[in-house]
Amino acid sequence: EVQLVQSGAEMKKPGATVKISCKVSGYTFTAHNINWLQQAPGKGPEWMGLVDPQDGEVIYAERFQGKVTISADTTIDTAFMELSSLKLEETAMYYCAVSLRDLPTFLDVWGEGTTVIVSS
Amino acid sequence: EIVLTQSPGTLSLSPGERATLSCRASQRTNSRYLGWYQQKPGQAPRLVIYGVSNRATGIPDRFSGSGSGTDFTLIISRLEPEDFAVYFCQEYGDAHYTFGQGTKLEIK
């Protein structure tokens, strides 16, 4: 069974940095890209970017360029997402998700989500 | 960049009724790249329909999808209590995933 297990909830002050992890099991870690998505309260998910664990290549959504850093550690089958210079409005749920398809058109498996609260 | 607009924002129906959810794209999209997700409170989204009309693993046949070009529809033929949730449409393009703002399907 494919599983993505994320790290626990975080509470941060404005201007801080948060780093969330996503541990993968049930398939070969390097076989599929890991995606990260932000979901603000009452909104649809917004794709932030992805990492190809095979070679470390990353692609970021334009809106998150310079704000997010995504990486992967193949020694522990874990992907990471770091958000810097946090703002109050970045209080949201953050998900990792993976497509298990040859053409990654849909996100088949999602992590349980990590709540990030930004508050002074 | 494509924008997906879902309607209605909220749909109030009773169990046993038929639900029709709409997703309109700001430009023509490849139907193979259009899907729908269900999200229940406190849970991650779950893929329901992919490639416009294909049911994901474990999704009952009361769920169906249709459409082409810019207009797509998710139909739930006979609502069960477990179907009441928020539904998002999603389009894939250039390694990016774009989601609609969601339709909340609530019990009347």
Verbal overview:
- The complex is a heterodimer of chains A (120) and B (108).
- Chain A has 120 residues and is mainly β.
- Chain A has strands spanning 3-6, 10-12, 18-25, 34-39, 46-51, 58-60, 68-73, 78-83, 92-98, 109-110, 114-118.
- In chain A, the strands form 2 sheets. In chain A, strands 2, 4, 5, 6, 9, 10 and 11 form a 7-stranded mixed β-sheet that branches.
- Chain A is globular.
- Chain A starts with a strand and ends with a strand.
- By secondary structure, chain B is mainly β.
- Chain B is 0% helix and 53% strand.
- Chain B has no helices and 11 strands.
- Chain B has strands at 4-7, 10-13, 19-25, 34-39, 46-50, 54-55, 63-68, 71-76, 86-93, 96-99, 103-107.
- In chain B, strands 2, 4, 5, 6, 9, 10 and 11 form a 7-stranded mixed β-sheet that branches. A 4-stranded antiparallel β-sheet of chain B has the order 1-3-8-7, with no helix packed on it.
- Chain B starts with a strand and ends with a strand.
- The A-B interface holds A 35, 37, 43-47, 50, 59, 61, 95, 97, 104-108, 110-113 and B 32-33, 35, 37, 43-47, 50-51, 56, 88, 90, 92, 95-102.
Count helical runs of chain B. 0
The backbone outline of chain B, from C-alpha atoms, is globular
Question: What's the number of extended β-strand segments of chain B?
Answer: 11
SSE string of chain B: EEEEEEEEEEE
DSSP strand count of chain A? 11
Briefly summarize what is shown.
The complex is a heterodimer of chains A (120) and B (108). Chain A is mainly beta and 120 residues long. Helix content of chain A is 0%, strand content 47%.
Topology diagram in text:
The complex is a heterodimer of chains A (120) and B (108).
Chain A (H helix, E strand, L loop, with lengths): L2 E4 L3 E3 L5 E8 L8 E6 L6 E6 L6 E3 L7 E6 L4 E6 L8 E7 L10 E2 L3 E5 L2
Parallel strand pairs in A: 2-11
Antiparallel strand pairs in A: 1-3, 3-8, 4-5, 4-9, 5-6, 7-8, 9-10, 9-11
Chain B lengths: L3 E4 L2 E4 L5 E7 L8 E6 L6 E5 L3 E2 L7 E6 L2 E6 L9 E8 L2 E4 L3 E5 L1
Parallel strand pairs in B: 2-11
Antiparallel strand pairs in B: 1-3, 3-8, 4-5, 4-9, 5-6, 7-8, 9-10, 9-11
